[in-house]
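Usage example:
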Amino acid sequence: MAEPKPAVEMAELVEQHHASVYRYAYRLTSSPVDAEDVTQQTFVTAQRHLGQLRSADAARAWLLAICRNQYLKSRRRQRPSLAVNLELDLEAVAQPVPDVSPVDAEQLQVVLDSLPDALRMVLLLFYFENLSYKQIGAELELPVGTVMSRLSRAKAQLRKRLSTEAAPEVARSSTDRSVVAQKSFSLAPQSSQGSTS
Amino acid sequence: MTGPSRHSIPEPWSEQRLAEAVEAVRYPCNDLDNAELVELAGLAEQLDAAPEWQQRAGRIAGWDKRIAAAIDSGPVPAGLADRLLDQLATAEGAPADEVDAGLPSLMPTEEMRHNTIRRRRWLWVAAGLTGLAASLLVVASLWRSTPLELNSEQLLELAEVWRNGPQATEPTPLRERAPRQAFHPPSEVHCPAQATWVVVDNLAERRGVMYELAPGAPRRATLFVLPLKGRPVITALSNRPPRTPRTTGNRASAAWHDGNRLFVLIVDGDAREFRAYLRSSSPIA
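Running the assembly step on the lines above writes:
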């Protein structure tokens, strides 16, 4: 018996969603090369299971979920997860919500990198995959209360650090990783490598 | 019994509960009307009764909008869609494990295929030439004269020479095009988006990639990715980035391997600056 025709052609999926999948992979991995790897794995996996996609409307969410799973799979292979203190931070609850100008995409990445994995993942599911806290709980197999608490803390930390990163005089107080990232982000325009001899 | 006015005033939630609920709402999705999200039931009444929380919720909604816009923005490498389509065409007939199998190559799949065809053609022509045998003998004698082993110190010195020598090709921004997966940076090293790379023709008889992690910066940081297997064999290598790099002449450097690939990281500065390029979560020797 012939296989049913997929709801969407693979080339169409790549054309329409490769940018979003790559950006999501970049947010997850914070590395352009790793992001491209994860993006490739995502589409290869999607190709193998294309029959599971029932409608074109669900394609973005489906691909982003595959992308997340590919990232988690590669992370499990690469490094052990760190023990992170995720207890409730009362300071974060009472923190004011500052007004800011539009958020810079690279600056946002530096701040996301500085957050513990558990908080970063909840934020990405919320903002990028646009899942409700209940759906996040189902995806991460966490109780709803834990998700709400993590979401609240993660968003408060994100706002706090974005406000801090925006002020150059205090930006250096971040972790080594963000210092390195900031160093390189400030190097514009890039000069040619040919003169290094 | 309580009067009607008491009924209209909701029992106030704790500050923590309100804070968590306000942060959990996806405002454009109208979560407040979603009956499945029972934890949010009554939040609208709570906000009506507490103007300061209503203002806070408004500011949070504004933030969420900005974050959501920024998070799905940023550059995408040029030609990514084409590379994906190539990869999918290759992967279509191959079993899952073989998608990435094969000898490591520095070029993307399409170029690799063309070059393979070209190379085969030349091989057929060359096979007819009597000089081929002589060339092979010369190559073989050179191969034999190569030292059997290099230790990691010698490797670092060779890498320094390569790093300071003239580059035959212009560096490629990583954002525009990445080398083949076999030459991607290790997960332990933080490789910023601005990094560039060039092909390394011959370092310790190996072909690989050299990344400039901070292109244009006064203090260079250079990462080499090479195949581990080959002659000379590299000895005295750790299987993770060493905590204490070798420091000479205001440069910190170290080499390690992951079982398949060889990495050399050279950073202008001291050990602290070297460690700044290592991911904090990575195991360190």
